[in-house]
Amino acid sequence: MNIAYIINGRIPTEKANGYQISQMCDAFLGLGHEVRIISPQKYIDPEFIAYQCDLKNFYSLNHNVQVQRLYVPDIQSTIHRWIPFLDRFQFFYNIFQTLYYALSLANYFNKNSFYDVIYLRDVNIYSWIKIFLNQEIQKKIYLELHYLPKNILKLKRQVKILNTCSKIITITQRMKEDLLKAGYKGQVLVEHDAVNIEKYDLLISKEEARKKIGIGLDKIIIGYTGKFFTNGVEKGIFDVIQSAVIILKTHNVEFIFVGGPMEIVSDYKKLIDKLGLPMGNFHFIDKQPVGLIPFFNKSFDILLIPLPNNPHFAFYMSPMKLFEYAVSGNPIVATNLPGITEILKDNVNSLIAFPEDPASLADKIKTILNDPKQGLRLAEEAKKICLIHSWDKRAKRILDFIT
Q: Any idea which fold 2-195+390-402 has?
């Protein structure tokens, strides 16, 4: 089967969507299919240039995914670099570039009709491209949704567009329910994100993992890997710091946060100082190579998903870190959000705290610190999640669904 995966952005990228897309394409390839990412030709930061034709090493894949870049005038990047005061017109540049890219895609697929599946995540691109494609090619298009509008009128408008696509994949059950409630008439498959078990299930001890990344062997570490904030929303590290007021009264532990961006760290340190906590017990590390993240996860004694009660995090997000944590064999403490508790269950395979509640978070962390055997039991149950939620099994279920 020939699969085209459309994205409307640069690749490689430091963003999570690039990682997710690359893992899915790698899984499709592993199942024996032909896959090509179709992307606009955009400005690539110098740090990524060496990898623009080498996604395999950038994302630590099993196969090198081919990328077909279509020419699109990159007005936005040019203006941002050379005439930044014109950034105020970004909305109009986005519309122009989206329309131009849609026309380029339509031209490409009309000339290259051998694809069996055209897969994408962008509703805007879909709404434009289907206008310019014949019905036979339109039938090959399938959407994976990672976002729904909060505004009900915008949602209904989006559903009107989506009703021309017969099959859709959502990443949470709540997203599916909201889609159907808003009037979507087609078929919906719920597929949460997943993990590359081969890369994340390290067959080494915690001590060996700590030596690899330089963490003291005698410390109790509570850890977090992932971005510190996304789209301007902080992801719960402030709550973790406040929970430390309670935890450090009875337990000598250290907190390690890995992922950046580092510009917010000064605010974290101000809070640590304000609360009178020992600064040496908190460590903030910038974004690390993909290949090192499994070693950090393996090194920690407790892994945190402290997401706040934000509508996107609560209903329309399936954190990849959840599955990457689960493989590590270490216990997880997460917050009680529907997108998380569709997978994690309190006192079954994790402990679940109230979101934005440092005292509740501290209580769950201390439960594991006081009873390591319970933490081991939870970790063993969490690891079973990955038997279902691996990228290759996710890819197979999606292809079975759409074909």
A: Rossmann fold (3.40.50)
Q: Tell me the whole-structure pTM to 2 decimals.
A: 0.92
CA distance 167 to 144: 9
Kindly indicate the confidence band of residue 13, based on its pLDDT and cuts at 50, 70 and 90. confident
Distances in Å between the Cα of 101 and the Cα atoms of 7, 96, 182 are: 10, 9, 29
Where in the sequence of the chain do the CATH 3.40.50.2000 domains occur? 2-195+390-402, 198-387
pLDDT band at 84 (very low <50, low <70, confident <90, very high): low
Task: Look at residue 52 and give its three-state secondary structure.
Answer: coil
pLDDT at 378 over 90: yes
Q: Kind of pairing, strands 117-120 and 141-145? A: parallel
Candidate CATH numbers 3.40.1160.10, 3.40.50.720, 3.40.50.620, 3.40.50.2000; the one for domain 198-387:
3.40.50.2000
**Does 261 sit behind a cis peptide bond, omega within 30 degrees of 0 on the bond before it?**
yes
